[in-house]
Amino acid sequence: MNAQVKRPVAPSASSPLNKEQVLAHLAEPSTPNAAAGDAMIEVHGLSKLYNGVAALSDVTLSVGKGEFVTLLGPSGSGKSTLLNLISGMTTPTSGTILINGTDATTLPTNQRGLGMVFQNYALMPHMTVFQNIAFPLQVRKVGKDEIRQRVMDVLKLIQLEHVAARRPRELSGGQQQRISLARCIVYNPPLILMDEPLGALDKKLREGMQLEIKRLHADLGVTMLYVTHDQDEALTMSDRIVLMRGGKIEQQGTPETLYFKPETVFSADFIGSSNLFPGKLVEGECGLVLRCAAGTFEVPGAEGAFPAGSTAVLLVRPENIAVETPGDASGRQQIEATLKDTVVLGGIVRHFLETPAGEQIIAQELNQPNRSRLMRGDAVKVSWRVADGRLLPAERA
Amino acid sequence: MTRPLRIAAVFFVPVVAWACYLFLLLPSVIVFPISFGTGGEFEFPPRALSLGLYQQFFTDAAWWGAMMQSLMIALMTALATTVLGLPAAYALQRARLSGAGLINGFIMGPLLVPVIVLGLGLYLQFAPWNLLNRDISLFLSHTMLAVPFMMISVGASLRHLDPTLENAALIMGASKPAIFFKVVLPQLKAGIAAGALFAFLISFDEVIVAYFVTGPETQTLPVKMYSAMRWELSPVIAAASTLVTVFSILLAIGIMMLQRKEEQR
């Protein structure tokens, strides 16, 4: 439905470059090639079949210069296939790929001038750290003195000058991945591809590396295309997230857009946790209401997209649901529920509730020293502001 | 396990194992003292120790000439095996060839055919081409016998080699030859060296095929030893056996050390 809708590059507060791109996009929104000069990657109608099965089908995507775009999706969604097509490791069944304004659809991998960071670091075990970082420069026939200078510069940038003479296996996973990053940025590729680069690191290290990659992105102004299945990573790092599903783009936009304005049940479910109430829209006393298993709910303005009689799903994020309605109940949808369990996750508290009809509801609030303690099995009234709900089309079967 | 069984396991099994080991080892070991004997016949134990048999070995051109011939053929076989086996192993592992299994089976074939059959076949093949009693026929036969061992050795190293390293080098802009020589080859060094030593050893030890395709001028050391047993019964053969055994053991130790180095990676 909206998989091929080309959206303008979303603005990002952190990078002024992106705002210019947005303006360029907005100037001539109807011609897709108008922004070719500003696009690092232009992918058109790209498909890849493996033995007749589509790993990627008819994907059109544009990545602006200097943008940090994340391909997010479960395994088998086509995100790695798309990355491999852009790197040239695989050839597309149909469609075109433009990199930095030139047609790269059939260009050999080693002539695309890209950088790539792999999940398993892919450092050469028989070379020292210095030799590893020098390798792409030697390939480019850079002079010896310049190689020494540039390698030491990037080692300084990642604060690992002291390991230059060591072998990769003598380093920790986090250090190895930083060396792998250094090996990439040393030859200034205009585009860096990252294939789950932090997947092999533990949580704490991963968070540190996320910030380091973001810092490098901001400092170098390089375009980054990042593949992950980790929604938190995507939300933390990206200017724009491209959510993929079954070889197609499900939705793309800024992290805020994907979180607050998901357009499909899949998007809502994949990013953040969600309460979903499937039901049927019927004419109520004042406008449409959703009739579902848990009751009949008021719905936010549906803007004509959902006619009466159609099936739809109401999304309410857990943090928008209050257990025990605050004093002013106007504009709120309220329902009865039983508390099944409460889990304290440090700074936040999560309540698991069940409606009389047996539907599960998750509510989330900030942990406070003076919050009211509820007992398991308590009958409570939960509520949310009608405007905080979001109506989504029912999933295709 | 019951107590008597445990006692049996602790004491009986090592005793049997050592007995078998000695049974296999003794025939090779017994030539060792004999080779230091004197005089013109086999003596065990030798009545006096001397290096006389070794002196005979190195002064008789028929003996040390055969050894030089063996060393030269083995060296050439090792080189040819590396040049042929390394690219073949790499291609079979990396390139998605149709019929790769068939090609692999074809190259590994000599391992499965009885050597006596191979020897006869090669004899019948080389005879009409007038290649018998020539170095080239021996070199070709031994290369054919040794290539499978190079393939196995390099193949084992290749399986340890992460293909993403080659992909990473490709994305960094390296050409295919540069990737082979700078990324792949340095990591296969130990496997190649082990394969080459294997090839050397196989050629150096081989007697059956060599017996078929060599003549008086191209005789290798094992063939010379075999004919010495039949026609001369000279005790110099004990010195020759000792030399071959020591040399083979040294090469085998070399291979083991290379394989251990490989495992430590």
UniProtKB/TrEMBL annotation, chain B:
Its main location: membrane. InterPro entries: MetI-like, MetI-like_sf. GO terms for cellular component: plasma membrane. It is found in: Cell inner membrane; Cell membrane. The keyword Cell inner membrane applies. The keyword Hydrolase does not apply. SUPFAM superfamilies: MetI-like. GO terms for biological process: transmembrane transport. Residues 67-255 form the ABC transmembrane type-1 domain. Keywords: Cell inner membrane, Cell membrane, Membrane, Transmembrane, Transmembrane helix, Transport. Gene3D superfamilies: MetI-like. It is a multi-pass membrane protein. The chain crosses the membrane at residues 7-36, 61-90, 102-124, 136-158, 190-213, 233-258. CDD domains: TM_PBP2. Belongs to the binding-protein-dependent transport system permease family. This is Spermidine/putrescine ABC transporter permease. It comes from Mesorhizobium sanjuanii. The lineage of its organism: Bacteria, Pseudomonadati, Pseudomonadota, Alphaproteobacteria, Hyphomicrobiales.
